[in-house]
Write a structure and sequence with these properties.
With 271 residues, the protein is of the alpha/beta class. It has one domain: Alpha-Beta Complex (Spore Coat Polysaccharide Biosynthesis Protein SpsA, Chain A). It is 24% helix and 25% strand. The protein is built from nine helices and 14 strands. The protein has helices spanning 19-27, 71-81, 95-102, 123-128, 131-134, 152-156, 217-221, 234-243, 263-269; strands at residues 2-3, 40-45, 65-66, 69-70, 86-91, 111-116, 139-143, 146-148, 165-171, 179-183, 189-194, 205-213, 248-252, 257-259. A hairpin with a 2-residue loop joins strand 3 (65-66) and strand 4. Helix 1 packs across helix 2. It starts with a strand and ends with a helix. The relative contact order is 0.20.
């Protein structure tokens, strides 16, 4: 579930300046950049990440260092360079580690708020926790263990007027380990299937775990019922959003992408 080794910089402590990382983010992708219309982001960082074994005994997976700094800091720096001004971090397991590191965000030149996911009952319910923070504004949502070439965030921060949502995709990843994204000739989402089994319909497009939403998504997360694995799935809400006649635009991420899902991926990134 990864492509190459992301070009991440050296580590920073909270008190250090990050201007050189912003410069790296601005030049990391050659795609022409639109003026951003999204200024808020929601980052999911509540899980322990059991596949990381002892590495998450004392910290949540999004705080594991990659090339000298936490995964979550890579994400925040990339989003900030794309014009994001306010962040909501959804915390749960070892929330104190996240809060102690980021504080109110002022050490990083941004604003950080927190909300706690008390019950780990799926990503669909997590989005509902962001309703007050987002208000009537569009927002980017990212899983806290997804790393991308930073220039991609500029594209996610500038949805077209008709886009009710954007879903990021990568090609030729193993969709049996994530989500298969089905698109039409305009590269708009028509269906989204979680971990399709052999013999089931599939797609070359893999759900890359970063989205842009307008407030209409909350109508669909509120209707969610538990999936066969007993959770409220964000992907079910996105599918319903698209199949209700709303435009969910897919965009293929450029450059490197990594789902830091296990110690093997982490070791490769830190080589």
């Amino acid at each position: 579930m990864r492509s190459g080794t992301p070009p991440y910089g050296e580590g920073l402590r909270p008190s250090q300046d990050s201007r050189h990382h912003r410069a790296m983010s601005d030049t990391a992708n050659s795609t022409p950049k639109k003026s951003p219309s999204v200024r808020k982001a929601v980052l999911l960082a509540a899980g322990r990440g059991t596949r990381m074994r002892e590495l998450t005994d004392d910290l949540p997976k999004p705080m594991i260092p990659v090339r000298g700094k936490p995964i979550l800091l890579h994400i925040i720096e990339g989003l900030k360079a794309a014009g994001i001004e306010r962040f909501l971090i959804v915390v749960g397991y070892r929330a104190d580690v996240v809060r102690d590191f980021f504080g109110d965000g002022s050490a990083f030149g941004t604003s950080v708020e927190y909300v706690t996911q008390v019950v780990q009952d799926g990503t669909g319910r997590v989005v509902d926790l962001a309703r007050d923070f987002t208000g009537g504004d569009p927002f980017i949502l990212s899983y806290g263990d997804i790393l991308v070439s930073p220039g991609n965030y500029h594209r996610l921060a500038a949805p077209a007027p008709g886009d009710e949502a954007i879903i990021s995709v990568k090609r030729n990843e193993d969709v049996s380990k994530g989500g298969a994204v089905f698109v039409n000739e305009r590269f708009e989402l028509t269906d989204l299937r979680e971990k399709p089994k052999p013999g089931e319909p599939t797609s070359p497009w893999y759900n890359a775990g970063i989205y842009t939403f307008r407030p209409g998504i909350f109508e669909f997360t509120a209707r969610l019922e538990r999936s066969p694995r007993g959770e409220y799935e964000l992907t079910d809400a996105i599918r319903a959003l698209a199949q209700s006649g709303n435009k969910v635009q897919a965009i293929e991420l450029e450059g490197d992408w990594a789902d830091v899902r296990d110690p093997e991926v982490l070791a490769e990134l830190n080589r």
